[in-house]
């Protein structure tokens, strides 16, 4: 199914990836009523991480911000897998970004801006959301960033 959001992705030169398969016992996204909740999305591209390590050590904040964009794109793919059509998104309600941080790194909000900015670029006002940006010691597979998204859908 192709709609306005798919057209906007194409206009931005972005391709919605395949849904990243779960790494454990969970679903990439679930719908409850008019809401879709994604699992934490890692910056996987073609089944692998392009970078690993801590932000502020092995990974620069700029690199991590790009990885957060990839996480958001993966989250949109997960939403579409449940909703069927990204044009059903009424709004992005909440984004939570986790940043595997070196002990002295405090720039988590700037990193998670990568996800927030992508959602706004793709969805316009519907992509503006509440958010948390959290520094953590380590993430699955030594990923630098993980992002989860909650969206509200328009009723069918």
**Roughly how many Å is the radius of gyration?**
15 Å
Spatially, the strands of the biggest sheet line up as 1-2-7-5-6
Question: What is the N-to-C succession of helices and strands?
Answer: HEEEEHEHEE
Number of strands: 7
* Average of the residue pLDDT scores: 96
Question: How would a textbook summarize the main sheet?
Answer: 5 strands, mixed
Q: How many helical elements?
A: 3
Structural class: alpha+beta
Residue share in β-strands: 25-35%
> What is the helix fraction of residues, given as a range?
25-40%
The outline comes out as globular
Gap between N and C termini: 15 Å
Low-confidence regions: none
Describe the structure.
The chain is 30% helix and 26% strand. By secondary structure, it is α+β, with helices and mostly antiparallel strands. The strands form 2 sheets. Strands 1-2-7-5-6 form a 5-stranded mixed β-sheet, covered by helices on one side. The model has no long low-confidence stretch (mean pLDDT 96).
């Amino acid at each position: 199914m192709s709609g306005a959001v798919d057209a906007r992705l194409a206009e931005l030169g972005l391709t919605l990836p395949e849904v990243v398969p779960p790494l454990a016992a969970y679903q990439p996204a679930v719908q409850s009523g008019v809401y879709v909740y994604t699992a934490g999305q890692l910056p996987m591209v073609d089944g692998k991480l392009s970078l690993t390590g801590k932000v502020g050590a092995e990974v620069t904040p700029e690199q991590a911000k790009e990885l957060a964009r990839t996480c958001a794109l993966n989250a949109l793919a997960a939403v579409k897998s449940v909703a069927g059509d990204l044009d059903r998104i009424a709004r992005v309600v909440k984004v939570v970004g986790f940043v595997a941080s070196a002990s002295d790194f405090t720039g988590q909000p700037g990193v998670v801006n990568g996800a927030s900015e992508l959602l706004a670029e793709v969805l316009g006002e519907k992509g503006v959301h509440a958010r948390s940006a959290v520094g953590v010691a380590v993430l699955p597979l030594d990923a630098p960033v993980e992002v989860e998204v909650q969206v509200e859908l328009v009723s069918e």
